[in-house]
Design a protein that fits this description.
- The structure is a single chain.
- The protein has about 200 residues and is α/β, with parallel strands linked by helices.
- The chain has nine helices and five strands.
Length: about 200
């Protein structure tokens, strides 16, 4: 099956770069399935120079992401399928993503019938990923979106650690499973094709 001609928007907020790496892999997976993809980042709430001065890692991430366009609501309307990514901030989606979805210029009802998936970067706080994913799903459901449920490994990363250890080290630093992220992008594109194709 091929999602040729489907439009997929991969929209993320990333401060330290982990969520951005996952987003790029999700976008790659959707492209492998034949979709047209827009990779877009969400603008930070604090002035960039304030954040850059606080950390070399943040500064390096900003430099790497300089060529990624900022997300606009028009990207959501363009897309047949949407992938949203956020750091798992103490069990909540980032304030930047929440503002984009639920803040000024609300999009309530305008996304009805589109399909979506969610992803977030790892957290050292137990249950933080599950809670952040749930928060993103709830926000999407309020907009009438059909949500593809996250895989168990996304929801309970700690429970899959032993299985991951048997497979070997992750593809990227920080425990990021980029192969799983690519698979998520492919599944999203193919789900949209099955529902609306």
């Amino acid at each position: 099956m091929n999602a040729h001609g489907m439009n997929v928007a991969v929209i993320f907020y990333s401060l330290h770069g982990d969520t951005a790496a996952l987003a790029a892999a999700v976008a790659q997976g959707a492209e492998q399935a034949g979709a047209n993809v827009r990779l877009r980042q969400i603008e930070g709430l604090a002035p960039p120079q304030e954040r850059w001065s606080s950390s070399e890692r943040i500064r390096a991430t900003r430099e790497r992401l300089a060529s990624v366009p900022l997300a606009r609501h028009a990207d959501l309307f363009w897309a047949d399928a949407i992938a949203l990514g956020s750091p798992a901030r103490y069990g909540a989606m980032s304030a930047e993503l929440r503002r984009f979805l639920d803040g000024p210029g609300q999009i309530a009802g305008d996304l009805a019938g589109k399909v979506a998936c969610v992803f977030c970067s790892p957290s050292t706080i137990q249950g933080a990923q599950r809670a952040a994913l749930h928060a993103m799903i709830t926000s999407l459901l309020r907009h009438g979106v059909i949500v593809q449920a996250p895989a168990r490994a996304q929801m309970d990363p700690a429970e899959t650690t032993s299985a991951a250890a048997r497979r070997g080290p992750p593809e990227a630093p920080g425990g990021l499973d980029l192969a799983q992220a690519r698979a998520l992008g492919r599944r999203l594109a193919l789900l949209e094709d099955r529902i609306h194709g």
